[in-house]
Amino acid sequence: MSASAFGTAFRRSLLLASAWLVLAFLVLPMTVVLPVSLTDQRYLSLPKAGLSLQHYRAFFGDPVWLSSLSQSFGIALCSATAATLVGALCAIGCWRLGGGLASAIRLLLLAPLIVPTIVQAVGMYRLWAWLGLYDTYPGVILAHTIIGLPYVAITVSAALATVDPRLEQAARSLGASGAQTIRLVILPNIMPGLLSGALLAFASSFDELIVALFLTSRAIATLPKRIWEGIQVDIDPTIAAAAMCLILLTLLLMLASVLVRGAASRRMRRIAGAPA
Amino acid sequence: MGTGATTGVGVRPHSLQVRRLTKAYGDQIAINDVSIDVERGRFLTLLGPSGSGKTTILLAIAGFVTPTRGQILLDDRDITGLPPEKRDFGMVFQGYALFPNMTVEENIWFPLRVRGVGRSEAAKSVKASLELVQMGHLAGRYPAQLSGGQQQRVALARALVFQPNLLLLDEPLSALDRQLRGDLQWELRSLHRRLGATFINVTHDQDEALSMSDEIVILREGKVEQIGAPADLYARPATRFVASFLGESNFLAGRLVATDAETFRIAVGDATIVQAGRPAAAGPDGDIVLALRPEKISIGRSRPGTVNAIRGTIVDSKFQGASHHVQVQTAPFGLVKVAMQAWGHAVDLAPGAETWLGWSPDAAVAVRSDG
Amino acid sequence: MSAAVLGPERRAYLGLTAPALALLAIFFVLPLAQVLWLSVTDPRPGLQNYAELVSNPLILRIWTTTVRVCVVTTLVSVVLGYVVAYAMTRVSERHRGAMVLCIVVTFSFSILVRGFAFVVLLRSEGVLNSALQGLGLIGEPLRLLRNETGVVIGMVHYGLPVAILALFSNMRGINARYQDAARGLGASPFQAFRLVYLPLTKPGIISASILVFIYSLGFFIIPTLLGGGRVVMIAEYIRVGFEETLRWGHATMLSTSLLVAVLLVLAIMARVVDLKKVFGG
After folding, report:
1. I need a surface site. Which of A33, A208, B95, B350 has the fewest CB within 10 A?
2. With contact defined as beta carbons under 8 Å apart, do B330 and B358 qualify?
3. Å from C7 to nearest chain B CA?
4. Chains adjacent to A (≥3 CB pairs closer than 8 angstroms)
5. Cα gap B77→B288, rounded to integer Å
């Protein structure tokens, strides 16, 4: 091996080793939650004598934790649905409007992602109280819909960017109304983007904390809010079990989005397959 | 669905009038006071370079562009304000715009589906349409699985299945390779003849326009330059633009020196040319331009017997299968392009060879050179 | 040729955007406007709330801490992220897939869970200290929590995936042959990198830095959990002030200053790179 080839190989190994070291810093800390949730101890620690499911029993046996889980699920489902519906319609509108107006609308749609949530939450507090939305499900759902909108807007706009605008004209010239065109032509062609936007909106609501802290009091305690209060008050390993639930749900959502993309690409392969 | 319902496919012939149509985008005028009459059952082509406004006119006819001024009439009925889906015009889009999420069959079913046509009737029409374009065996395929030519046929079937009032074609052949383009030109002609429908085609390709159309509208910078049958336009271009856009031409610019009953003479440098007809296209100070097609010039070693004859030197020549194209340097006209059939002649085409060019008084045509 | 939309059509498409615009106008823009309004009117009209920004040493200290933590977080995230993103452009498709998976999994993890994991790991009696003590590497437990080190560790964990994705999307567009060409012209590997590659990745570095910086500015969960009341950043301070005193003028002034800081950084960024690309719009 020549000196320069050795140098190249050495530099490459060094680069890859450093990169994976950084990636290990990203991934490894997450994995600590699993053993801690299975600890046989009564306080937050790694298992000593053996593994135990006691904290999962505590979590699933506690109506308060279960109620938080179902509250979070319901809120995420409603707000993701609303954000997807409203965000997708808006993205489609912008897609065809084009020009400066559409750019301005898209920027506004992204704004909730840019403005710090804490600032939004401070502002929402008074309006929500005034509208009687404070500490109510509609109130939290509404706030989470706003927070979920940018995700839908981004994914749906990206999906629309690959759709030929002439498809829309073709549908109209063939006699389809605007609504028929959206339902029969545009929506089927942006489905993967729409679904991943919906999943992102769901996830963003499911682990949203700040708005939940500001806009709710006694009536509502979402899972993140309960975990947060748990960490603040006393660190009981049940929180690790609750955190594992959040993790599992995240992984499920990721799996779902991989499956959605997989199905879409299989479909594309089928559609784009070579003529027999 | 009209009278053709029994056959499934069939287009009622309609006439279309475009009256003084203008479309401005801010300061920019895309089409400027354009009037076109399309008779029933005609195959009309809008021909022009890019930016000439041809696509804007087609989109206005289809209802996708609202004209700033002017009217569009279908059989004398004003349809200017009608939305695209209410016009019942079949349209074949550039790139075809087949719905990628639907099979061939579903694509063709689409216009019937949105019109609420019953399943069994729709199935019959779809089948007839597929057969019309010989695509029955590929009904279950998705567009991406089809070749360009097949996609083009599906787009045609989809545009025809609902028996539209007219068929609009936006650069229907531009995405295909040359060989296929030639074949499909024949097919489109034959389809037009069989259906007897009114077709409006947009293209920038002069060959396509010449070979398929009953009538050509030549557009330039948003205005109509000339309208006519292909052979008429080719033989008698009214303007320098038309003469150079439709085929090739040599332009001989000179000054009117004499006029008699059937001919006039113009001086170009030292040479004098005799030209048939009236010098209607002459400018106020007698300036006049003649357009002379390369294939109307004869080339030979000795002075030809034609009225007009000049000497020249061969600069270069290229062989193009059916013909030779020759560049000849002449004193009065500069470089002259000559086309001659590639067989049965005995002319020395080597660069530098001295040669004679000749043409008759009715070979050239006086054109307007303004604008 | 532009296929402009018809007048009535245009109205229909505007109609599609109406629900989103109405939602955002009432429940996003209006609350923000109210924040701005209250910051100059409560308890009485004037700029006295903003005077506190310079006169109140506590607020000054909190802003200083916030900016310092954010700058360190950004630097660390972008430098480490650059290494990973660069490596991603130099590996096989499969290898890159594995790296992307790590990043996406991290990215999609709840920040609350990440904060919790770091609390478990970094506490004095936590997993890391126990392990190090068990191995005999350290005698006294390291103090990793309730100080800026802990906060930066947690925030880098959030900033890194953001930085990597921004840098990678820029590097992906750079032809690897440029460096080869530089080598062919006689440059050393380091010179080829410094003189050719690095300048080409400048837009990526800028957008990564600014993205990480603006997200860090408004961070609440990580600083609160890992700072443990010792390291207080602006978002936590807003929350605490809001909960304990309910001085609207004060809370909204702090919120406005945070918003202005974010918009300011964003405005700088807009001059340098295309914002639409950065946010994937």
Report:
1. B350
2. no
3. 7
4. B, C
5. 44
Q: Could you tell me if A275 lies within 8 Å of chain C, comparing CB atoms?
A: no
DSSP symbols for A118-171: HHHHHHHHHHHHHTT-TTSHHHHHHHHHHHHHHHHHHHHHHHHHTS-HHHHHHH
Sheet containing B287-292, strands listed edge to edge, beginning at the edge strand earlier in sequence: B271-276, B263-268, B250-259, B287-292, B365-367
Give the model confidence (pLDDT) of B267-314 as tens digits: 888 888 888 888 777 777 888 899 999 999 988 888 888 889 899 999
Determine the pLDDT at residue B1.
36
Q: What confidence score (pLDDT) does residue A274 get?
A: 39
Give the DSSP per-residue string, B2-61: -GGGGTS-------EEEEEEEEEETTEEEEEEEEEEE-TT-EEEEE--TTSSHHHHHHHH
Secondary structure (3-state) at B349 = coil
Instruction: Name residues whose C-beta falls within 8 Å of residue B227's C-beta, 6 or more positions apart in sequence.
Output: B36, B215, B216, B217, B218
Q: Which of C83, C127, C276 shows the shortest C-beta gap to A19?
A: C83
Q: Which C positions 131-150 lie with beta carbon below 8 A of chain A?
A: none
Whether the CB-CB separation of A90 and A197 falls below 8 Å is answered with no
Q: How far apart are CA C276 and CA A241, in angstroms?
A: 40
Supply the pLDDT for residue A254: 83
Fold classification of C54-278 (topology level) = MetI-like fold (1.10.3720)
pLDDT of residue B4: 38
pLDDT tens digits, B110-121: 999 999 999 999
pLDDT at A253: 85
Catalogue all structural domains in chain A, each as residue range(s) with its CATH number: 74-223+245-267 (1.10.3720.10)
Interval A54-83: pLDDT, tens: 989 989 999 999 999 999 999 999 999 999
Query: Does the pLDDT at position B30 exceed 80?
Result: yes
DSSP at B141: -
Over residues B187-196, mean pLDDT: 89
Q: Which residues, 6+ apart, have CB-to-CB distance to B202 below 8 Å? A: B45, B46, B54, B55, B57, B58, B168, B169, B170, B171
* C34 contacts A240? CB cut-off 8 A: no
Q: Which two tokens stand for residue B126?
A: 């779809």
Strand, coil or helix: B323: strand
Lowest mean pLDDT of A233-242, B86-95, C35-44, C144-153, name the range.
Answer: A233-242
- Ranges for all domains in chain C classified under CATH 1.10.3720.10: 54-278
Closest residue on chain A to C229 (Cα): A232
Q: Which helix (H) or strand (E) holds B151?
A: helix B148-160
Q: What confidence category does residue C281 fall into, taking pLDDT thresholds of 50, 70 and 90?
A: very low
